[in-house]
Amino acid sequence: MSSNQIVKVGIIGCGLVTQVVHIPTLGFLSDYFNITFLCDVSPAALEHSAKKVINHVPQTTQDASELCASPNVDVVLLANPDEYHAVHAIEALKHDKHVLIEKPMALCERDADAIIAAEGNSKGKVMIGYMRRYAPAFEDLVNEVGGMEKITYARVRDIIGPNSHFVSQSAMFPKAFIDFSTEAVDDLKSKQDDIINQALAVECGIPVTPEATKAWRFLGGLGSHDLSAMREALGMPQKVVGASLGPIWKYDAPRWLSALKLITFTSVIFEYPGFSVTYETGIDDIPRFDAHVEVYSKQKSVRVCYDTPFVKGLPINLLIRENLDGTYRESIVRKTYEDPYTVEFKKLYDMVVNRKAVKTTAKDAKEDLKIFQMIMKAGVRPGGQ
Fold it and tell me: Which residues form the Gfo/Idh/MocA-like oxidoreductase N-terminal domain (predicted)?
């Protein structure tokens, strides 16, 4: 029997990531966590996900406020559409709950500032779910970069195939549901329009077009993983030298899933003091996962290589190439098979129970939005992309 304090978790959003990652991982960490409450606008998703919880059936609700107010919840995990992250984070913080927000924390600075202000008035703390940054291999890369005499170049790449290819091999058997009420769909659309106008027209000063909207959502989705990792490893860039946001070739998902199904590629060149960084990212129909961060110096290069998070136990390795007195040496460093989500949840536990600080704070996450703005201003031409 565990002697640990068990942290009670309420999850808002019962989609694919919750079904494939959050519920199983928290179940494996049953010495630390217990899922006590689930919330979703889909009754069928709630029923399906509740059955996935190990050893008991959690409470369920379609009302996020009920979950946030529950005395049976210590941590609110937000895995719902991005448009509701600020609304529900603020509601949870009003009740002094801790909050884990899946990235992106917010899609505009206005909402980011509202979350930061709410945290300042709460006993609860906010952690953002940049799980890749908690991988031990990535933290080793950051340490290696800190020991480099001079960085000469860096590359950030994230080119992936359809998630469905990997999810189908996860043995989690997730299901998608569309039994949303008309009111829920309309409310989401209203929030989408408001947030995109705020982000693009007000904060970026660029026209709100379908192409710009899709590019912004793409940066907030896949891009936030990479650019957040780039910030931790290298700091904030000085400027964007050039950006190609790329055409969108497919955009045929229902409105509720509109940011998740697209085929596009984006290329960016960032300028740092004394070196440049190439960022290349895209989604296509080739079933592979090509994601890494690589940093070069005169005598050494270090690369952290990521694999899909939807198949548990795949290693995250650090690849080191170096010149040792004229001899080429290549090393692969693997500290653990423990996946980044598991490591991230252990950090969440330390934040809640042991009051330890986390690096992926709300203030930290706001910096991503500044980089998104730099990219959009460089990539959006007058009259369109």
Answer: 7-130
Q: β-pairing, 264-272 with 126-129?
A: unpaired
Phi, psi of 126 (to 5 degrees): -110, 135
Q: With b meaning 16 or more CB within 10 Å and e meaning fewer, what string describes 310-329?
A: bbbeebbbbbbeeeeeeeee
**3-state class of 344 per DSSP?**
helix
pLDDT digits (tens, 9 = 90+) for 94-105: 999 999 999 999
* Token pair 């995990």: residue: 77
- For residue 60, the SS3 value is strand
**CA–CA distances in Å: residue 127 to residues 241, 275, 299, 352:** 32, 31, 36, 10
The token duo for 353 is 């129970």
Residue 75 in this model has a pLDDT that exceeds 60: yes
What region does 274 belong to: left with phi over 0, alpha with psi -120 to 50, or beta?
A: left
Element (H, E) at 153: strand 151-160
Tokens representing 261 are: 């199904």
The total of other beta-carbon atoms located within 10 Å of residue 356's CB is 12
Structure tokens at 118: 């709410």
* SS3 at position 303: strand
Does the pTM of the predicted model rise above 0.85?
yes
Q: Is the distance from CB of 17 to CB of 102 less than 8 angstroms? A: yes
- Nearest partner of 7 among 354, 362, 338, judged by Cα: 354
Q: Return the CA Rg of the chain.
A: 21
Interval 278-303 mean pLDDT: 95
